[in-house]
Fold these 2 entries.
Entry 1:
Amino acid sequence: MLCFSLSQPRGKHKLNYTQFHPISKFVPSPHPRGLHISPNERFDPHHRWSHILCLVLCSSPCYFVSLLLYPSVQAPHLTGCKSREQETFRCWWSPGSFQNLTEPGALQIQYWKKNDLTKEWKECPDYSSSVKNECFFNKNNTVIWIKYCVRLHSESQNKTYDTLCFELQDIVHPDPPVALNWTLLNISRSGLNYDIMASWEPPPSADVSVGWLTLVYEVQYRRRNSSHWKVLEHEFGTQQSIYGLQTGEAYEVRVHCAMRAFNHFGEFSDVIFVHVPEIPNKESTFPVTLVLIFGAVGVAILLMLIIFSQQQRLMVILLPPVPAPKIKGIDPALLKNGKLDELNFILSGAGMGALHSYPPDLYQDVPWVEFIELDADEPEPGEKDNQSSDSQRLLGHNNHHTNHGCFHGLSIPDDDSGRASSYDPELPDQETLMLMAALLSCQPNKVEPCLGNCSHSSTPSLDVLEVPCPGLQAPDLPPEGGERHLVQTQLGGPQSWVNMDFYAQVSDVTPTGGVVLSPGQQVGAPENTPTTKKDKKGKMEGGEEESEEEEERRTNKLKFQLLVVAPEAGGYTTESSGRQMSTPDPSSPGEVYHTFPPPSAESKPHQEAYLPATTLLGDYQSPYILPDSPPAQFLPPVSDYTVVQDVDFQHSLLLNPPSPQRSPTCSPQPPSKPLPVMPIGYLTPDLLGNLSP
Amino acid sequence: MNMMQVMQSVVWAVLLWPCLVSLGVPLECKDEQGSIILCASISKEKLLDRVIQHAELIYRVSEESCTLFEEMFVPFPMRSQRNQAGYTCATKAFPIPGSKSEIQQISDKWLLHSVLILVQSWIEPLVYLQTTLDRYDDAPDTLLKKTKWVSEKLLSLEQGVVVLIRKMLDDDMLTTSYYEQGVAPYALQPEVLESVLRDYTLLSCFKKDAHKMETFLKLLKCRQTDKYSCFLH
């Protein structure tokens, strides 16, 4: 009996379920009516497991015994109620093994609804004829959201064997979807895998369009011979993609649906078969890699061959040789060995036209009357940056020059007798130094104007200067346009000074500060005035300076002075000192040679006048060199400029070669240079080497 | 609670700005109280879609909560209540027809009003349910979160339905309900079977009513799109 009771727990419960009254409400109580729960089962959620355990333990002996003693007795019970579309539902029962209840009509299905007015059990409206033991509730008898209770009742015995309560929406098991089909999405590149898209349609009985039913679908697939279905995630739409199927394998796919959130899945649809045959590999990767390897090797071999065969050329292309210094159009051999005459000739433009194409003579007979406009142009930055030493610059233009005319007082603010036209007194000293160097060489090249700090914005650029070197521009060149062609690099080779007049005398100064120039000397005696550092202050003193300068210019035609500007010293030689120094007598070169700080006594008054101007510029130490003209050789008349002949041991420049009796006190002269001949002004490297620093 | 709601809606509005621009304005559109006005104009169809989304989500979450609660607290024999006469959910003030045909004949106005009544009737019980669940010792976090989420979404659903009614029926008489923290009517100890069953009943009834709301709204939508076929069955 124990086994019997244990083996049929459900029936036992149902047998005791007789006290249920359909009308009574369900009142929560420890022992709900109609449901017999043993005390120890009430609070034990796992009592089912104990049931099963006992079953297992007892099943074998008890079962067989019970079978022997009692053939399987099963009470009539309701097997279930289901709705397909939430509009109708059916209930099925089983009569069990009770012998006396197997005849039809012995058992009835009775039901009632919560909202019934009569509160009585009603007979099943429709016992279906086709299916045995089925009760069908049609649309008219079906309501939703209202509790139904269905019971299996035997009238004759007045006994209810089973009861089932539910609401319509809880028993919906939708029909299977229809029209399940699949399409191939893609095949992997290796040809081993592919993806498909399975699509279907909702069951026709489900009224999805109206929204009466909202379905969720579940797709399952498996390999043909496997027993385990792979379940995919629930899908709300009517298609699902399946990834990772293997070619050559046969698959089965099926789908079923449930009402959303109720999880009572309906029956499965028909199974469809998916199969994609294997695709033979059109190409295997092995030859491709082989080809690639061979190709790479071949290319490498080719490259090597090219390199080895064209080695020389490649070396030239990759590592171009450093070009030797040369001047365009001039044979480097000329530069080496001191063939200066020829070089000068060439450079003067009379030679090849590749050189600077200035018209060879310009200024010789052109009266120079012009007004200089002093503009505060900034010198070009490129030219400002040149910071090479002044001595080198000047030495580059030194001894071989006759400083005819090429030296304009570039920024020589005062004592500018004989300064060329368009001379700008505002130029900074460095620039003037540069310009002077350039002018010495008298090349129509550019010169880096700044020897030192050239950042005086107030000082006009070199543009204003128009150096009437051969080949220079016309006098009417605007000052700022004059630019750099006036300023010439010291690299510009030596220029023949002979018979060139590069300078013009300032014949007059207008009250407004313009300078009136007159043509310079025929003989290329460069006229120069001792220069000094000049700055704004110098310009401010403008008017009287101008007059002074002009006067000085007029008078001092001879002398070039070498000014070594020391910070403490004014760094300039005045007109008087220049005058003093400018003796045309070459025999007394010593007097010409001045180095600062010791200025001459006569020059002092002038110096003092200019001292404040010059001391302001004391921060740069660039020696301010005025080439001194070797007077006697060239210039019967006054010459204001001197070529720097040499540098003595004190870093002072020798403007005139010392006379033989004075030679011991002077630095050795460059041996290769004949003094009477005005050097062209090009210092060859070997000559320079002879100069002691 | 209102402030939180408003804040949440503002945050969502900011985050979903591009969506909002394309889809319209979120449901939280309280014009009458001078609170945050996020509505500019939204078409009826989009609003209805939004409301249906809400109803569907609420229904799904309520079903999940019911299942969770059942598994955790309800003894096995009482699950699904197959064999019981059933519990009685709180009766509503109006009878709701049961059959599909009857329901399909309900007018738009009636559908919307019944949805609104359903929503409004469940706001307070859900809040009560939250407090009760908090007293359970081992209530899973997900359950608590779900019930909290549902009660919040119910409020926004209510607002949406109010706006929908105003738009579709030109009925301006409705006001949204204001939640007030009420005293819990039952002060029973938690985890006693009675309270467990009561809560279980509550959840099940709410699940049913959520299903009702969803169905009504979907029927309404069907009528908006294709009036003829919706009345056919």
Entry 2:
Amino acid sequence: MWGFLKRPVVVTADINLSLVALTGMGLLSRLWRLTYPRAVVFDEVYYGQYISFYMKRIFFLDDSGPPFGHMVLALGGYLGGFDGNFLWNRIGAEYSGNVPVWSLRLLPALAGALSVPMAYQIVLELHFSHCAAMGAALLMLIENALITQSRLMLLESVLIFFFNLLAVLSYLKFFNCQKHSPFSLSWWFWLTLTGVACSCAVGIKYMGVFTYVLVLGVAAVHAWHLIGDQTLSNVCVFCHLLARAVALLVIPVVLYLLFFYVHLILLFRSGPHDQIMSSAFQASLEGGLARITQGQPLEVAFGSQVTLRNVFGKPVPCWLHSHQDTYPMIYENGRGSSHQQQVTCYPFKDVNNWWIVKDPRRHQLVVSSPPRPVRHGDMVQLVHGLTTRSLNTHDVAAPLSPHSQEVSCYIDYNISMPAQNLWRLEIVNRGSDTDVWKTILSEVRFVHVNTSAVLKLSGAHLPDWGYRQLEIVGEKLSRGYHGSTVWNVEEHRYGASQEQREREWELHSPAQVDVSRNLSFMARFSELQWRMLALRSDDSEHKYSSSPLEWVTLDTNIAYWLHPRTSAQIHLLGNIVIWVSGSLALAIYSLLSLWYLLRRRRNVHDLPQDAWLRWVLAGVLCAGGWAVNYLPFFLMEKTLFLYHYLPALTFQILLLPVVLQHISDHLCRSQLQRTVFSALVVAWYSSACHVSNTLRPLTYGDKSLSPHELKALRWKDSWDILIRKH
Amino acid sequence: MLCASCRLLAARACDHAARPAQSPGPRAPLQWRELHFPGYPELPSCDSLAGRLVRQSVPPGRRATRRRGKMPPATGGGLAESKLRPRRGRCGPQAARAACRDVAAEAVARSPKRPARGSRRFEAAGWWALLALVTLLSFATRFHRLDEPPHICWDETHFGKMGSYYINHTFFFDVHPPLGKMLIGLAGYLSGYDGTFLFQKPGDKYEHHSYIGMRGFCAFLGSWLVPFAYLTVLDLSKSLSAALLTAALLTFDTGCLTLSQYILLDPILMFFIMAAMLSMVKYNSCADRPFSAPWWFWLSLTGVSLAGALGVKFVGLFIILQVGLNTIADLWYLFGDLSLSLVTVGKHLTARVLCLIVLPLALYTATFAVHFMVLSKSGPGDGFFSSAFQARLSGNNLHNASIPEHLAYGSVITVKNLRMAIGYLHSHRHLYPEGIGARQQQVTTYLHKDYNNLWIIKKHNTNSDPLDPSFPVEFVRHGDIIRLEHKECPVKKIWRWEQKETSRNLHSHYHEAPLTRKHYQVTGYGINGTGDSNDFWRIEVVNRKFGNRIKVLRSRIRFIHLVTGCVLGSSGKVLPKWGWEQLEVTCTPYLKETLNSIWNVEDHINPKLPNISLDVLQPSFPEMLLESHMVMIRGNSGLKPKDNEFTSKPWHWPINYQGLRFSGVNDTDFRVYLLGNPVVWWLNLLSITLYLLSGSIIAVAMQRGARLPAEVAELSQVLLRGGGQVLLGWTLHYFPFFLMGRVLYFHHYFPAMLFSSMLTGILWDTLLRLCAWGLASWPLARGIHVAGILSLLLGTAYSFYLFHPLAYGMVGPLAQDPQSPMAGLRWLDSWDF
């Protein structure tokens, strides 16, 4: 027990000073004057508003990616005590005193700084030399675009940190553990960390999926080799596979759900994006619709007063509506109408959106006691609350969609046009056990009894006579399920007043209160996820948008910020030496690999087996990483910017020293050649340093350059450097 | 059925006999036990052993050549052999199998108790008879009631019309390459259709016009799908029952049937896809005899079919991809074979490049050459193409035209956007509606030639008429500030309003454009050419220094708005009804150089200038080829679904979620509904899952080094190799649709469905055999196999009997009604019949 007293207590510290130095330099380059400029820079205007929403706990919807990235940024705001009160309205606006700029920018900057030692470790884990590893880290250190991107409140550096580097590094560590100590503590640690890093990456941007797939692919190939290893017992192989499946498949899914869980827990107040979500979702938020719908009766009964919202919600979310005006006798194009009361879809809350569900067999418009709930398949009439005319459709062409039937509120003109106002209720999402029409939860279709047409929102805007509201039609040929034919009850109360006058008063008064309605997490998650994927913003143009082809050779840049008075400015502009040599290294790598492969196929082995394996693994991870982070952009139709290339660029930077070392080790035949080659590499690196230093004023934006100097920096005609005229 | 399984037996027996021959070295005696099949007790032993011994003495490198020399077996005699020859000669099995087949043949031939020649002949005859039966059945089902309904169904309105265009030599534009429509036109021409039917809309009666020829041609090609699939599967699995099953699935699929019966591109496309697949498989099995006549035949046939597939629709790219992958794998394998010299490998490579790249490209280009040659008259497609292209169409106003070469003030011009399929700068006497920018006259682009496309180019600061003969001619130069005045229609009395004609200037200002909110609105403004400074534009030639004149047609010009600095362009978006669904014109503040903001001058009228002939502008053939591809690709990606359209999603397709209505709506109409036979389709779906499952089990077992019994190993090879190839085909023809942004329809799935049916055939046959193998006793095992295949065959046939009204058409009440022929068959609510 006291044994340790008998021997001296020895702490052996194994400190890799170069690693420490790299970390220090990384921190210095990323954190130096972090609060400068104290103004909104480029996309900070975009992410900033979401941080404010987090601080104020207001629900929002952003289709650019899952919430983890925004949460990381918001964490910075939380640590700095940000109250969310800042109007993020334009780039270049000065930050007010309550915005903790330093802590907001701290996390991305830390991620950027840690990328430097991380690159060092990755190359080392790929079994390349210390020199190559130092090279990779030093390139990361001086790459201007990475510095710019990580010094601001943007997500790319976090993304690069997590998925490019952490996921790859931990997988490599795990893979190296696999050889000597499977199922050891560190084995488990690195395996789990791979899964966690992957899910974080996917949680920041959907882009992360591509690297995740790459890591999964490499893991699958390794697992396949494991299966083929007949020295292992079946049980052992099974355990290996199970551990991988849990760490690389289950953990990411669980974490991904967790991000959304936290997101939905944090954001419980209604906000500006409510309209996009379904009524049920809105009702689960505090304020907004929840205030209105609280305490509504759940089951719709005959005599209920309801508002009906279209589920499709395109082009705008709207409610079934009618008003006193009638359809014009003759349309502009000469067709005739029934001249009955207009029925439209109206995108605002209005007293004219109220309808009463009436039993066709009785004459009362109030709910009897006990209420008789409406069920799937029941025949109903829908009576417009204020005008007491009932919803009708007939074989008259609709105003804008002549293939469909007109829908009107029936007026009896005593001409040969009888009322056809019976509708059959179909509950689309009815459960197996219950078929009662429920407020908010039920999605229903109204099928016309005489013509079997379905009540549908056509999406067209009526002309001036219809006040530019949306057209409602009876669709005769309804094929399958479509949101535009489905409705749900949003506001609901039991009608109590017999008299029309009283009823009008009742309709004008707000609905009554209480009982909250909870939606399960999975339902909310799936809806949110679905909307995020389905949301399409149509701004397809931006002054600084670029195409993927321009990225490889750095033919484009983005002006992030310009000082309001001087010509100090920040640009996203890479170190062109590194970009070009990165692309060159990639080409060399592919050509060399092809050459080796062909030769090996003819049984000529140029490389020793272990060098070959090393070369292949490095290539699959780095060149493959570049490919999966770059090529998919050619298929995307959204607006693309230069910063989308940065993840791919980091992989190129990792590949560079690998290729250089390979050339020096295997292609330089004599010592002399090797020396010359090393000298060339040193010269090349110093030129990269020089370029980096020259572009420094545009990276940090700390120095105001004269127009002449700025012109001198414009090395490519396509670079857009801002020059003040005076 | 009986003779089929007999033959199978022989094939199997021989396979086992040959197996040891491939792997020299000691053999486990265990494997020999497999050979004792009750039907042929003494078949293999001594003879095959002898053959094996001969083989083993040959050094492995030269084995192939030796085998090639042996191919027409010298030992075997007489009629039986020669009867069999056609099959073996044309599609020799793969290298491994080839050996065994030889052995079997020799064995049979030399066997002292040789099974009578008659039975061999009977067997071969049976083989041909089966193929004939399958083909006949396919033709019979496809041609049955081909003439009904006698009106236009669904897309016949497009493709029939395009066939007529070929007959009339009228130029048109379509998003697909021309081969399919050319063939339809040819079929129509040969069958006596004169191209006069208008093909206006679905439902129009054909009346006296002859349409059977075109339908018959499509049905003819569509009928070949079944025998092609049959032969492909037969070659991949070496099993008649698998091939029969596949043939039955395709014959009895109502979807394939419906799609083959009308004037559509799909039967033609699928014909070429299947032909390419078949010839690729055949050529693979000739791999042991490279550079022989059948080898060349199948290789070049593959190339021809690829050209055909690509020439009909761009979907043909997928089969090209499949053949490409197969070829690369093939070459990789050859390259790794150290017994082959590099020169031989080079020969292989050259042969493939010639047959699979050069030949198809040449044929594909040739179809376009014919296309351009045949369509020589101006027609509805002109506006999609560039001015130079139009100059070669007779009837077009640019044809043989001569116009002044350089732009001068006072010229009347039309301005065309350089981007394909955007059209001419256009304005008309309608204002932008209330609430959309300023209420001024609309400016759009319009694809068709029209008087409203005319503009007069004027100096910005004077309003005097430059055509006044007293003024000297002044050319417009790069960098000049100009005004574009809209030339009003010559006043015709057809206009209902007789107001004073005014001409407006092209104008832009800081109002957002109607659709692209970030751009500025472009309007027509001013009275009789008097406007304000917002009407001034700087005209610039792209990549040009200041001061040069501007050439008609040749110069690529931009218009830069002087006040706001934005560039005139067209966003390519379609305006709503108020804009007559023409395309939006905006002034974009982003100075990026895109084709959308570059224009050229097309028509040019200026009486003061001398005219030059336009013939020098005629584009060369490669330019025309390139341009028509650009237009097609743009057109294809432009087929975006509108917001409220019911569109089909790729995940709907394999589950047969929703059909397509070909004809008829109400219960009194003649209704045809394109829907797959649900039994077939759901069986296919099940098979894919089963395949993935069984395939991965086998693969893992093999990777773990499990020692499979010979027969199982054989079957799993069929499953992994043959099935894998077909599965790859299915994947390539299905999954890319998930990435497509254009509007998709159900019928896009049918090429994939062909592959999935082949997979089903192979899978069930193999699984049943494996099952049978698992059961020890032979008669029972064989019984299971036969019963399984038979019940699948009968099941599909019966389901076809149930669902055939979908394809052959039905009249009477809809399926909800118990009186209907389809009552009770509407298994999914989304089916609409």
